[in-house]
Amino acid sequence: MTHMAEGAEGLRSVPALLHRNATVYADRPAYREKEYGIWQTWSWSEVADEVEALALGLMNLGVNEGDHIAIIGRNRPYLYWSMVAAQMAGAVPVPLYQDAVAEEMEYVLSHCGARFVIAADQEQVDKVIDVQEHLHQFEHMIYVDPRGMRKYDHRRLHEFSHVQAQGRAAYDEFIEDLKIRRERLNYDSTCVMLYTSGTTGKPKGVVLSNRNIVESAKASAEFDNLTAGEEILAYLPMAWVGDFIFSLGQAYWTGFCVNCPESAETMKTDLREIAPSYYFAPPAVFEGQLTQIMIRMEDASDFKKKMFHYFMDHAREVGPKLLEKKSVGLMDRLKYKLGELMVYGPLKNALGFSNVRVGYTAGEAIGPELFDFYRSLGINLKQLYGQTEATVFITAQPDGEVRSDTVGVPSPGVEVRIADNGEVFYRSPGVFVEYYNNPDSTADTKDAEGWVATGDAGFFDKSNGHLRIIDRIKDVGKMSDGGMFAPKYVENKLKFYPNILEVVVFGAGKDRCTAFVNIDLTAVGNWAERNNIAYASYQELAGHPEVLDTIQSHIEETNKSIAQDEMLSGCQIHRFLVLHKELDADDGELTRTKKVRRKIIGEKFADLVGALYDGSDSIYTETEVTYEDGRKGKITATLEIRDAKIAPVAASKIAAE
């Protein structure tokens, strides 16, 4: 097997990369996990042993080449090893969203025909057991955490460590076959199958090959000079392509260390302890962190508040220039240094960002104000644009060319073109093989020459060659006067405010735009407590007159900003209401990656949309909701509808007309 270490020729699969890392980086840390408050570490050579034992154990259970193995749970080293062990045995790993309900899991498990499931714990095992009579191919389930599992029927249920022990015991019996399977893997072998979040219709199984993963990992690691010395925190869903490329693709290509937090609750503490050098988060995470900062500042003394705002104002002017190594006057530099000592340094430390050399956000567009806030602190936060079908990367921002309103230039090896209707198309080594068992959708998305339709509308900025994404092509519409309607552009501006969690804007084919708003319970709840305002529920707080006043002021401020944009000035919000419930994936209103399912929301709350347009100043409504334990219930509310002031449109627009 020595040829594996000979450059890219031998490195044509993830198991081949593991073999190289176990040789070249043998004693370097590959994984850390915090358990019972203590960080456990595994070196690359230890990981190779763990993965091989599991692969042998899977073969002992009857795993064949081409089988699908579903993997369900939060980010844990054992589950990452499961993906590589499955590949090593010639099978295909299919990670599922851990917060999916049993019926969603049933769809994916039966669609891919999974014979085996590797689950993190009792909660995930129970979901599969709930639907197992509908899963005709399902044979065996392996669980990592044995707590609560003693009294289950163990004929088809196996503990992870026991499967590894049986694999080690059957070493002589299976090792030759395992080596043959491992060496048979090449660039065209399937590496992973990931299900899209499905903003419309059922999720589709995106088949990604070793070529897709290895080439994308190699190109992106070189683009950002990632080395074996990076530290990352693996906390995003394992079923999401972003986590797969960062925590598996790039980690195995470069040999860096993947750190898994103890739980979602300890995530922030664990992030501070690891202080990653390479960090990725969707905008919602950055929004949540900023909300926490603002809440803490509200509770600070007047002196601290003044100091924070004084230095943050300076940071907004100087920080991004310093980050891009542009010239900044001596006094400004000194003042920024002082700010670093007093405000920015402690703030980055509290967030766990003191060592971030490269940070990315993607998955949704990020509000420019939010993006600029983090860059002003000296954090090299950049945007990339991608999708599952591209193995993430379509465009990315090179260092020194970072802007809040674009998503960068085509990633290495990627070609991008804009169709006549404004839709973005791309072609690259990362382009997916196919949608599993769905030739029609594959043909609709990818043409014979390998060009893929993204479903997004965008254009290249003439001044700098960067791509700007406007919105989903199906969401971009026209107002009744022919002006452009791009809801996400407005929604992201509003989500910059800590009090606002989610926004859904309506207006396609109408003479004006209106909006639903979800308040951020943490931020608004904190304000209520400080002002001695008692409330018993989200609903009560959402209908409070002072809360409505605040949201109205945010909308009116945003309208002024929208009025400055020639192309989109018609998207100002005329009327709005604050919803009586939070939009929720369990109620089908969001995808598992927290994207708004616009069409479903419009249909479900058709009465509320109607009221926004018919001039009513309030509306009574009843809504079915799903509780955490799966029970259904009804909530009723009378919602106030308010008008918002419209700002005058920038003069150049009027002149042009």
Briefly note the structural class of the backbone.
alpha/beta
Measured on Cα atoms, how large is the radius of gyration?
A: 26 Å
Fraction of residues in helix: 40-55%
Name the average pLDDT: 92
- Number of strand elements: 29
Identify the strand order in the major beta sheet: 4-3-5-6-7
Which sheet architecture does the biggest sheet show? 5 strands, parallel
Describe this structure in words.
- This protein is α/β, with parallel strands linked by helices and 657 residues long.
- The chain is 40% helix and 22% strand.
- The chain has 23 helices and 29 strands.
- It has a five-stranded parallel β-sheet, with helices on both faces.
- β14 and β15 (392-396) form a beta hairpin.
- α2 runs antiparallel to α3, α2 packs across α10 (241-254) and α12 (283-298) runs parallel beside α18 (521-530).
- The N and C termini lie far apart (71 Å).
- The relative contact order is 0.07.
- The model is unreliable at 1-7 and 653-657 (pLDDT under 50).
Short structural summary:
The protein is an alpha/beta fold. The protein is built from 23 helices and 29 strands. The strands form eight sheets. Strands 4-3-5-6-7 form a five-stranded parallel β-sheet, with helices on both faces.
